[in-house]
Design a protein that fits this description.
8-stranded parallel sheet, binds pyridoxal-5'-phosphate, 12 helices, alpha/beta
């Protein structure tokens, strides 16, 4: 018999599929929609999520490191797999062995891949990362020509694509992305004269708020998992079909207790009851991704009603106030993220209470708990 945890992540494959189709529609026919499945698919499970996207027509996948790419390829994914963070020179062979596409931004990467290509008598397709205003990884636009010329010295390297990344595409009214896109377009026009390059820059914000930036391919992350990059505001602004959150997080009541007025609750007594109070103890804590910053701030759903977290969240436990909820018993289902009855706690709501973004909430919950998948 397999023993499962009290805490369960449920992922809806139907929601993932819905979101992929919606993104494909928004990006336009003929535009490739790369599924970003880094960070274990933002907590949804890399192999499982990739399989759902593949069955929905996805042929391009993105991860951060080569180790993830090897794991994804070994799970049976047959499309293109891109590694976005670079690699150590001694790992170059893995790109050939597993047919993975490297993103390169310095000549050391290029040289290492070229040596490996010569040794194997093979060629490798690479994509070039240009920093047009992210202030992070990449070549500066003015360095691209010299870099491409230098790459000619390296046999076996085929430049197949060029990309950049938006730092502010979640700000739908900002001119920043528009300006950055024209810088990118300038680089591409120049560099692409002889080469036929796959151009990509748009993340979720790009596709949703700046659709003219979709180019040949887009790289969608958070939207595929059902969230808008600018959180609740994005969902509220949406006039068409909405993205559907794919993840929910449930646990159960461990113990129900009634304590008198003046009882200090949990480590440090950061909450003291003002009157006789009914509490439910839950087997979930910061080890399970329920951030300690939600102490005395977060809420959960029990019997379709909201129960406030009282006192500090512990490593494996937290305490909620059920004084206003009738009939709660140990074993009752508790929803931390998702729907119960007529109410719903969204990743955006939790993120706001943590002063963070849905991305982090999904990673914290999804990557620290058992996951199950359903249609
Ligand atoms: C994570 C990532 C994306 C996806 O961003 P979302 O905002 O989640 O859509 C796209 N491109 C790169 C390079 C990334 O690292």
């Amino acid at each position: 018999m397999s023993v499962t945890s009290f805490n369960q992540i449920r992922v809806s494959s139907a929601a993932l599929r819905h979101n992929y189709r919606l993104l494909q529609q928004r990006a336009g026919n003929g535009v490739r929609v790369l599924a970003m499945v880094k960070a274990d698919a933002y907590g949804h499970g890399m192999e499982e999520a990739a399989r759902v996207f593949a069955s929905t027509g996805c042929n391009d996948f993105g991860v951060a490191e080569i180790g993830e790419a090897v794991r994804l390829r070994s799970s049976g994914i047959i499309g293109n797999i891109f590694v976005f963070l670079g690699f150590r020179p001694e790992e170059s062979g893995l790109f050939f062995e597993y047919d993975i596409t490297p993103i390169i931004y310095d000549l050391e990467n290029g040289a290492a891949l070229s040596r490996e290509a010569l040794r194997r008598g093979q060629e490798i397709v690479v994509h070039l990362k240009v920093d047009c205003g992210m202030g992070r990884l990449g070549l500066l636009p003015e360095e691209v020509d010299a870099f491409l010329a230098a790459l000619q010295q390296f046999p076996g390297i085929v430049v197949g694509g060029i990309l950049s990344h938006f730092p502010m595409a979640d700000e739908h009214e900002s001119q920043h992305s528009v300006e950055q896109f024209s810088r990118f377009a300038g680089v591409v026009t120049k560099a692409g004269k002889e080469l036929s390059l796959v151009r990509h820059i748009a993340n979720s914000g790009g596709v949703l708020y700046f659709p003219h930036t979709c180019c040949d391919m887009v790289r969608a992350g958070i939207s595929l998992y059902g969230y808008y990059p600018d959180g609740r505001a994005g969902r509220e602004r949406e006039k068409g079909e909405k993205l559907q959150p794919a993840m929910s997080f449930v646990t159960r009541v461990l113990q129900v207790r009634t304590v008198p007025a003046g009882t200090g609750i949990s480590y440090g007594y950061t909450y003291t009851t003002e009157r006789e109070t009914r509490l439910a103890v839950l087997p979930v804590g910061y080890e399970d991704g329920l951030s300690r910053s939600l102490s005395n701030r977060g809420e959960v759903l029990i019997r379709g009603k909201r129960a406030a977290i009282r006192g500090r969240i512990c490593m494996n436990l937290c305490i909620v106030d059920i004084s206003e909820i009738e009939g709660v018993q140990s074993g009752d289902e508790v929803v931390i993220l998702g729907h119960q009855g007529d109410d719903c706690i969204s990743g955006d709501e939790i993120a706001e209470r943590m002063n963070s973004i849905s991305y982090e909430v999904l990673c914290l919950f999804g990557n620290n708990n058992e996951r199950t998948y359903k249609e």
